[in-house]
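Please predict the structure of the following assembly.
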Amino acid sequence: MRPFCKIDHVDKVFTRGSTSTRVLKDITFEVTKGEYVSLIGHSGCGKSTLLNIVAGLTNATTGGVLIDGVEVNEPGPDRAVVFQNHSLLPWLTVYENVRLAVDKVFGKGKSRAERDEWTLHNLELVQMTHARDKRPSEVSGGMKQRVGIARALAMEPKVLLLDEPFGALDALTRARLQDTVMALHQKLGNTVMMITHDVDEAVLLSDRIIMMTNGPDAEIGEILTMPMARPRKRLELVSDAAFLACRQRVLEFLYERHRFVEAAA
Amino acid sequence: MNMPLAKSDMSASIPAAPAAPATAKVLALPSRQTPFNARMLAALGRFATAVLPPLVMLLLLLTVWEILCSRPGATLPAPSKIWTEAHDLIVDPFFRNGPQDIGLGWRVLISLQRVAIGYGFAALIGIALGTLIGQSVWAMRGLDPIFQVLRTISPLAWLPISLAAFRDSQPSAIFVIFITAVWPIIINTAVGIRNIPQDYRNVAAVLKLNHLEFFYKIMIPSAAPYIFTGLRIGIGLSWLAIVAAEMLTGGVGIGFFICDAWNSLRLPYIVVALVYIGVIGFVLDRLVAAIAGIITRGTSVS
């Protein structure tokens, strides 16, 4: 079976004036359909750049990305992004924010009533129907991120890209949102690529964790497969041997072998 | 410094917690509907705090003015003299005694009509040009220096040129309004467009919005607070300019009325006209601010 999503020898060089910095070096990995993959690494290691390359918001210097056999060279709704700071349009209501995406993606394929229904269905998935007529400034940070997820899901993307989706949230809200994302992944079977620098989050949610070395010249340091069965329960995993071993492994990678060196930045 | 105090407070309150067993007692909640009288009183209070202070100041100023200008040899008319001499002008703004003898209300309306046309063009062209400059680096490099020079030219300096070009006072006055109001609209729109957050651009890119959709779904709403700042400055400037332009071009506007009153030395009329101009300018500013408030609600907070 051919890989669903293939990141093929991606290099990214930023040039400013006469100095050029290679941020990403020879990144190659594959993601199968329905898999949940996390990218983890210290800040500045280029994981956001990599996600932007997959999203098509940035171009790779060499190498490329194939999604379902098609090369990525521009952004599109088949690779919906959930941005770290939600990026909802503040002048639209919760419903209108999702509806904008639905209208744009399914404007030709679905009738008006179907699009309305699909918008509400996606708000329902993230439990946000109660706030459909509120504006983003009127709901909490966690709710904004839920709407961001609903907007991305509503595009029915081939790959869902999450750019530190829970980074700006407090710990309790983050845990609840992680559970929501886990449940959605279980239910819908999306292929997900997520950036994070939270070790627990990566181990809890992912099938595989791609650990990146420090930049510049960041590359894949190690790829770890999480063997725990799904559905996973946060509380049960706390004492699960496999979970603890994976967690230990990632922590060792990040804080011993590739400790963040301030001087390098 | 407060620590010891806080600590002793804590230790004092902890043992107090498991107090006597709670006994349930039904309390009548106060009716949510506040009595009509109280609401009226509150509204009256708000009205008083907003209206009374300026009213008192106004009376004070009028008194000082009255005293200063009642002396023999005073060059300017006192309020009482204005009231008696310009009485029919003040009490009836909409009289018509002949083609040149009409109420100030009509004159203001004629001036407002000119402003509406000139300002309307300024808004349309200003937003369009501002969008262009904000969106395209080359348009900005080419046009921005020229605009920065042109915008410093006094509105009235354009009048001879426009009179020569249009050969009529009506379009010339409108052109002066346009050229006065257009610069702040262009510049503020451009700043607003340039300040569209990258996030919104990313969202638009992922959704594959085309140029037109990007323009009216992202750009205009996102830049709306800036655009309305420009529009608000523009309306103020155009109201300033119309009076000056009409004093020079003639016609029947409020500016020409002042010029005419000056030529026949009817100072009370001029004072009444000044009050009209000030009030209308204030109303125009508030009007644009109110429209901005309605349209941009929710936009400023992200």
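The interface with chain B takes residues 55-57, 74-77, 79-81, 83, 85, 87, 89-91, 100-101, 104-105, 135-137, 155 of chain A (CB under 8 Å). The radius of gyration of chain A is 19 Å.
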